[in-house]
Every structure is written in C-alpha cells, then in structure tokens.
Amino acid sequence: MYRSDRGWTLVELMLVLVILVSALVLASPLMQSVVQGNRLWGASSRFLLALSLARSEAILRNRTVSICPSSLYRTRLALCSGTYADGWIVFTNANRDRVIDGATDTVLRGFEGLPPGYAVANRDGTRRVSSLINFNADGTANVNRTLRFCPPQSAARASISVVLNMVGRARLHHDAAACSLD
Predict the structure, then answer these.
(1) Could you tell me which of 4, 36, 156, 160 has the fewest CB atoms within 10 Å of its CB?
(2) Are 160 and 146 in contact (CB under 8 A)?
(3) By C-alpha distance, which of 81, 54, 57, 8 is closest to 164?
(4) What pTM was estimated for this model as a whole?
(5) Residues 66, 96 contacting (CB under 8 angstroms)
(6) What is the pLDDT of residues 66-115, one digit of tens each?
C-alpha cells in the first residue's frame, strides 16, 4: 500500500513566501498613506477639541480664554512660543496677551504636538501658524480663522483644515489641495 506523507514541500513553502512578500511590498505605500491620514485626522480633531474647550470655558468662567502654541506637553513649561506643530495650551487670559501670568491666568490643558514632518499652516498652506486665538466671555472669537493641518511634504495626502468663524463655531474641513510650506 502506498502511503503519502502529509505536509508541504520546500517548493510550495517558497512559493507561498514569495506571494506573501509581494503582497506586503505592494500594500506598504497604501498602509503608509492610511497611517498618515489617521495621524492628520487625530491632530486636527485634538485641535478642534481644544477650541471647543476654550469656548466653553470662556462662557463658563465669564472671561477670556486663549489658545496658543506651546511645547508644554514636552517641556512642562507653560510658555506661548513656537508653532502649533509643537503643541498648544488652553488657558484663561485676563490680559488677552501671549504671556501666562501666574497671578491672573490659569492653564486649563496642554496638548501634544504633531509627529515629525507634520505642520500647521495658514489657510493657503504657505506658512506656519503661531498666532493667539482668543475666545471672549460670550464664546465669540471675533475673527474668522482657518488652520490647515499638513502631512509631511513627501506624502501624497491632502490636508485637513480647522475652520473657526467669528461666532466661535469650529469645524473640520477636508481640503483637496496639498500644503506648499518651504
């Protein structure tokens, strides 16, 4: 009687490995694009959360609350400096300035910065943003502003904008264009 051994031959195993490696090589750029898109969406959503927090705290506390770029999350120093790619803080701001006064101002929350290579730019996507955003005691912002969250320059992904209107309402907007930061 003939008895066949169960198992795979070396040729069959090599063929399966070649197919798996080929599939991984082809899927790698697609996965990188998905990861970049998720990072961009997460960062812009965190900024939208900061805007909502600042607006609600301004109304609740009946005083000006501001958002400014800061690397507080990394350095533990509550200073308004750098760009929003470094991170940002939400704080009460009695003087409506870029200085966090220990006697009159309170840091409400700090947010982590963006991954390396990512940036926050102006509406046109041509320069980095570092301006202060103030919410009045009635929740208004008194300025229309768009901040564009940009992927790394090598990425073939469109940016995501956070749009803030004068009334203080903020929303996310998917942009069709890429950023052109230098």
Answers:
(1) 4
(2) no
(3) 54
(4) 0.81
(5) yes
(6) 999 999 888 888 899 999 999 999 999 999 999 998 889 999 999 999 99
| Measured distance CA(42)–CA(158) in Å, rounded | 14
CA dist., res. 147 & res. 97, Å (int): 20
Q: Around 84, how many Cα atoms within 13 Å sit in the side-chain half-sphere?
A: 27
User: Is residue 47 a contact partner of residue 83, using CB atoms and an 8 Å limit?
Assistant: no
Token pair belonging to 34: 């998905």
Lateral strand order in the sheet of 145-150: 119-121, 145-150, 160-164, 170-174
Whole-Å CA distances, 102 to 67, 69, 79, 110, 115 = 16, 18, 11, 16, 30
* Domains of the chain from N-terminus onward: 37-174 (3.55.40.10)
